Structures are given as structure tokens and as C-alpha cells.
From TrEMBL, chain A:
Gene3D superfamilies given in the database record: Alpha-helical ferredoxin
Example of a GO MF term: metal ion binding
SUPFAM superfamilies on file: alpha-helical ferredoxin
Coiled coil: none
Protein name: Sulfite reductase subunit A
Entry-linked PANTHER family: ANAEROBIC SULFITE REDUCTASE SUBUNIT A (PTHR40447)
Length: 385, 281
């Protein structure tokens, strides 16, 4: 066992698989709702879990364009799957929430926010791309002089326990987006799963004091140099095995300068405008409001919910939508994600998680569409020269 | 965690009272609002907008149409076109509404100091321009020519008839109006506003133009001004988009890389001209 003063930010230690349940027990004892991966309806989803038995032990996931299937692994890895359909986004930026209630009676009109305490959540099993996505959403919801109160309350109390990816999926391209696979920031603790024929351990790296507080209560032992070396080797191999790549060099300009390219019409012939890509994307932040009046006419509620730029009413102005064609809506989504985000928030809005590829029912691949647009731009340039 | 205070919750409207209501046309009303709590009165810049809430109906962005020097009250001119604007203007004097604002970047009236100021309005586009006009007329001597060109659908849709009479009568304002169609009792111009722009007196080397109206009208008006050698960076337009939050967070008002609610609604033409010419941005 490590002594308490050895367990501090910057320290590395090892937690054995046999003791993994302690992590969840300690988090619960510290008052956290533990949200972690579990298998539900044939997919790995993030839900509140009670014990390590709920984790997707021995589960692998296979992704391809328009395809997602779970399989059995040859080993008993707890985090041996590729990030599932939905990211952590719903836990910080709720899919639907009441913003305020309005009461009207006589000469009075008042607005009251619901008094719902934000849950204190520990996210277990966050991937590097997902942490990068939260960092991006922070820039949207916590920026400037008016942070989103609900997001900020949920975000500030949350503990982030990350896991380094032991392998890359067929639709992964975090290396292209410089967001992974190694967890480097935004987390409190990061685990690397080490599986050998005779051992199953987790290298635990402590990043913050909040992470150290949890780690001090765990039966940790000192990390051997070869264990740290194996973790590095696993990450190097994951980085080498990305299923997709996105060439970001000059991509912002290519998108912004080719808004009239024929490629948009081409992808529109395949795109169903179903909004799946925007629902699974960990950085999509668009939302809308709905106003609901009680039957007595004396109280009303404003609700906020996720919205998608693929829906016609998203751009509705009196007279009709600004973007009636699927072509314009796909162009808006992809240009915003890969180009306008950089102008608006300083970085690409894509973290390379590949969800929009896996979960597109028409198998549209953002990396292929970007490459097609790049070819078009290069041909146009050659034509001019 | 308790409920967030009104000061920090950007979604919570303040309560304002309709203290005056005037029907401008059959479907357009001007409302004067005062805050229920006097402490919530706020200054605004010409061209800015507020989010107005009709109880139970929802919230919409409405530009401010009043005099920026008149503090303590806020004037909005609203056309009933949808499920929020209809109940808003159906309100009678004394009714309470929700208001958040003011938001956005307005008309850079200061940029026209010492120059000719051209105001080009189409339809309801005169409403967001009115605070800039009133501001400029308050300090008339700070500008060279002031030219106001106003195009409307027909004589019955003309807004701010009192102002129009005032501007028409002033020797130091070049005011002209045109309508798309009119009966025999109309003795003024009939036709598109572009004809007024062609004939307007201004010095393109020393002028600033503010344009507000339907997007196609703004595009053509800007082209006409450029044909008269007014540079793009002397032309400003005000855009309209769907908005839910008004602080660059709901995503609805995106116009290329810009958030119309925060970066606009007023934009300098050279910064958005390519986008303005691309369909369905």
C-alpha cells in the first residue's frame, strides 16, 4: 500500500482488478452518483452504476460507417470497447430541462427557476476525445459574463475519471484532431487497463487534488517502471491504429471558400437529414426553447431542449426556413463543425470520436466528405493556375 | 444549490409593462414599455434588440425602435407574423411582458460623424433604423448630409407617419419614400427603392450608409450604393435570423462564422458580403 502522502497530483500507482469495486464504493461514499459504461440494448451506454459488475466486462465494440455491434473479447477487460453511441453530454447539457416557470395572476408576472440541486456526479471511463469535447462545450456554456447556470452547476461538481484507450475503432480519428488517444488534460484521474495472462491491473495517474482525495482511499500499490512502460506502449499502438484520418491542414479555408461546391449536392442525395449525427456528437450545443402553458392559463413553463441544424424549423423565420434544402443543412453542420467553430471558439468542433460516422444510417463519413471537398478545392486551384 | 439569481441567469426575463400602444398599420403596433422595477431600466445603442416574451406564447427578438436618449422606457415596433408577435401586439395598455436585453452590435452612428449619413429602409426595416435617425438628428451638426430613403409595400404600410412628416419637412434632411403599389390618391414615388438610391445626393468618398430591410432588398441596395462608388466598408446592414437565446448559445442565428445575435445584427458589408451572396446561409 502507498502511504497517503505519496498519493498526490502527479503520482502514479496501481489498482488491481480485484480491488476495482473499491473505486465505485469510495465514490459513492463521497456522495457521487457514479455514471459509467454499461451494456444496454446491444450498445455501451453511460448510466448510473452501483458496482463494477455493471461494467461491460469482456465486451468489444466494432464500428464502421453506419454500423455498431458488440462482440465478446478474448479477455476480461472492463474498458475494452470503443466509446459508445452517446457521450457524457446529456449529463452536463441536459437533453431537456425546465428553464423557468412563469406565473401570472392579476397584475403580477413572475419568473422562477426550478429549485433542483445539481447532482454531484463522477464520470467513470471517459475517453480523451470525450474530455476534449467537454472542454469545447465549456467554451460554449461557461463563456463570458453569462454562464449557463444549469451546465455550470453540473460541471463544477463533477469528477472526471478517464481511461486511456487500449485500442482504436474503425471510425476513430482522434489523432488527426489532436485530442487523443492519451488523456492529457481535463481529468481528475486517468486509468490505463493492463491485462497480462497472470494479472489484471489499472495504472492510476493522479491529476488533481480532487482525484487524489479519492485515490487516497483506494488500496493502491506503487507502480513498477515496466507497468508505466506498458501503458505508454499500449497508447502508442492505439495511436498507430486509428481507423480513420482527417487532414485538417487548411481545412477551415477549404470549407469556407467552397460553399458552392458540387460536393454538397452530392452528399445531400445520400443524407436523410435525420439529425442522428448531431444527437451523437459530443460537442453539438444547439438548443431550442418550447413554451408550455398550463390549462388554467395562469402558469407557463419554458423548456430548453437539444435542437439540430438538420431540422427545418431550426432556421425558421417568418415566411419559411432559411435553409430549406438538405444540401444547405448538411453544409451548415459540417462547415460549422470543422471551420466556423475555429472562428467562434478557437478550435475545431470535431474531436475525432467517429460517432457521426458510426451512427449515420446512410453511412456518410465526415472524413470522406472532407477529403472530397479537398480534392474539389485542389482541382479548382489547379484549374486556375 | 439554490436557484440562480436573476442577475446571473441569462435566461430569466425582467417584467416590463406596456404603457402605450399605437397601431402603426393593420398588423403592426408600436409599444412603449417601462420596467415594473425601475432599477431594471437600461440604456441601449441604436440597432440593438431585446427578447420579448408574451406570457405562454414564447419569446422573439425585436429590435428597439425608440429614441436612445429617452431613458426609462423602451419602444418596440412589432408586426404580427407569428405565434409570439400576434399575442404581443394583442396586449392592451397596462399588460405585462417579459424582456431580456438589450443584445447585439448596433449601428455605428459615430462612424458617420463628419460625413454624409444615408439611411435606407425597406418595410419594417425602418424600425431598427429609427433610433439611429433620432440619434443623428439630435446632433444634426455632427454630420454632413442626412439622407433617409424609405420603401414600403403600399401607402397603408408606412410606419411612423409623424416622423415621416417631420423628416419630410426638415430642410436639413433629404427624405424620400417610395411604395411598390398605390392607388390614385398617392402622389409620391412608385417603384423599387433602388431608383431613389440612384438619384440620392451624397458624396461617395465621404459617406456611410445604414441599410435595413428584407435581405434581397439589402443586397440590391448595397450593390446600387457600390455602383455609385460607395466602398463596402462604408455600408452597414442589419440581419435577421431565428434566435432563441440571444447570447451565442442556441446556435440558431448562425450566419457563416457569425452569431447574428452577438456579432450582429448590424454588420459591416465587407465582412459578410460573400455570405450574403450565397444562398441558404
Amino acid at each position: 500500500m502507498l502511504s497517503a502522502d505519496q498519493v498526490k497530483p502527479g503520482a502514479q500507482a496501481v489498482l488491481s482488478r480485484a480491488d476495482f469495486d473499491h473505486l465505485i464504493t469510495v465514490l459513492q461514499a463521497e456522495g457521487y452518483d457514479v455514471i459509467g459504461p454499461t451494456v444496454d440494448n446491444g450498445a455501451v451506454v453511460y448510466q448510473e452504476i452501483d458496482n463494477a459488475g455493471a461494467l461491460p466486462e469482456g465486451v468489444a465494440s466494432r464500428q464502421a460507417a453506419g454500423r455498431y455491434r458488440l462482440e465478446k473479447r478474448a479477455d476480461n477487460a472492463l474498458f475494452g470497447y470503443i466509446a459508445g453511441a452517446q457521450s457524457w453530454r446529456p449529463y452536463l447539457f441536459q437533453p431537456s430541462r425546465t428553464v423557468w416557470r412563469a406565473e401570472k395572476s392579476g397584475d403580477e408576472l413572475s419568473f422562477t427557476e426550478p429549485e433542483e440541486p445539481a447532482p454531484k456526479m463522477a464520470f467513470l471511463g471517459m475517453r480523451a476525445c470525450e474530455l476534449a469535447a467537454i472542454e469545447l462545450q465549456d467554451r460554449v456554456f461557461m463563456n463570458g459574463d453569462a454562464p449557463d447556470p444549469d451546465y455550470a452547476a453540473r460541471r463544477s461538481g463533477a469528477l472526471f475519471i478517464a481511461v486511456n484507450c487500449g485500442e482504436a475503432g474503425e471510425t476513430c480519428f482522434c489523432v488527426s484532431m489532436d485530442t487523443g488517444p492519451k488523456v492529457t488534460r481535463g481529468h481528475d484521474l486517468v486509468l490505463t487497463e493492463l491485462i497480462a495472462p497472470d494479472a489484471h491491473d489499472f495504472l492510476v495517474e493522479i491529476e488533481t487534488e480532487a482525484g487524489a482525495e479519492i485515490a487516497r482511499k483506494l488500496p493502491l500499490r506503487a507502480a513498477e517502471p515496466q507497468e508505466v512502460g506498458r501503458a505508454d506502449a499500449i497508447l502508442a499502438e492505439t495511436a498507430q491504429s486509428m481507423g480513420r484520418a482527417l487532414d485538417t491542414n487548411g481545412l477551415k479555408e477549404i470549407l469556407q471558400d467552397n460553399q458552392d461546391a458540387p460536393q454538397w449536392g452530392d452528399v445531400a442525395e445520400r443524407c436523410l437529414s435525420c439529425a442522428n449525427c448531431t444527437l451523437v456528437c459530443p460537442t453539438c450545443f444547439c438548443n431550442t426553447t418550447e413554451d408550455v402553458t398550463a390549462l388554467d392559463g395562469e402558469s407557463a413553463e419554458r423548456r430548453q431542449r437539444w435542437a439540430s441544424c438538420f431540422n427545418l424549423d431550426f432556421s425558421y423565420l417568418h415566411g419559411g426556413p432559411v435553409r430549406p434544402s438538405v444540401e444547405a443543412r448538411y453544409r451548415q453542420w459540417m462547415t460549422h463543425k470543422l471551420a466556423h467553430w475555429i472562428d467562434q471558439f478557437g478550435d475545431s468542433g470535431c474531436v475525432g470520436c467517429g460517432r457521426c460516422i458510426s451512427w449515420c444510417p446512410a453511412s456518410i463519413d465526415i472524413t470522406e466528405e472532407a477529403a472530397a471537398l479537398r480534392r474539389h478545392a485542389e482541382e479548382a486551384d489547379n484549374g486556375e493556375n | 444549490m439554490t436557484a440562480v439569481s436573476a442577475q446571473t441567469d441569462p435566461y430569466r426575463p425582467q417584467v416590463w409593462r406596456i404603457v402605450e400602444k399605437q397601431m402603426e398599420t393593420a398588423d403592426t403596433a408600436t409599444l412603449a414599455l417601462e420596467p415594473k422595477d425601475r432599477a431594471n431600466a437600461m440604456p441601449f445603442e441604436p440597432g440593438q434588440f431585446n427578447m420579448l416574451y408574451a406570457f405562454g406564447g414564447g419569446e422573439v427578438p425585436i429590435s428597439i425602435s425608440g429614441d436612445p436618449r429617452e431613458t426609462g422606457r423602451i419602444i418596440h415596433t412589432i408586426r404580427a407574423v407569428g405565434s409570439v408577435t400576434r399575442p404581443l401586439i394583442a396586449h392592451e395598455r397596462g399588460a405585462l411582458v417579459g424582456l431580456r436585453g438589450p443584445f447585439g452590435a448596433g449601428w455605428p452612428v459615430e462612424a458617420a460623424r463628419g460625413k454624409d449619413l444615408l439611411i435606407i429602409a425597406g418595410g419594417l426595416g425602418l424600425a431598427p433604423l429609427r433610433p439611429a435617425i433620432l440619434d443623428a438628428l439630435h446632433r444634426r451638426s455632427a454630420f454632413q448630409r442626412i439622407v433617409i430613403l424609405y420603401g414600403a409595400k403600399d401607402p397603408d404600410s408606412l410606419l411612423f407617419l409623424g416622423d415621416i412628416a417631420d423628416w419630410r419637412g426638415r430642410p436639413d434632411v433629404g427624405f424620400d419614400v417610395t411604395v411598390d403599389r398605390a392607388g390614385q390618391d398617392w402622389h409620391g414615388n412608385i417603384g423599387v427603392i433602388l431608383r431613389l438610391i440612384k438619384a440620392a445626393h451624397f458624396d461617395p468618398a465621404n459617406a456611410v450608409a445604414f441599410i435595413c430591410g428584407p435581405e434581397v432588398m439589402m443586397r440590391l441596395a448595397a450593390d446600387e450604393l457600390m455602383a455609385r462608388d460607395l466602398p463596402q466598408d462604408s455600408i452597414y446592414v442589419s440581419l435577421e435570423r431565428n434566435m432563441k437565446c440571444a447570447f451565442a448559445r442556441c446556435g440558431h442565428c448562425q450566419f457563416g462564422p457569425h452569431f447574428v445575435c452577438k456579432d450582429g445584427p448590424v454588420f459591416r458589408l465587407d465582412r459578410i458580403r460573400a455570405l450574403l451572396q450565397t444562398p441558404e446561409i
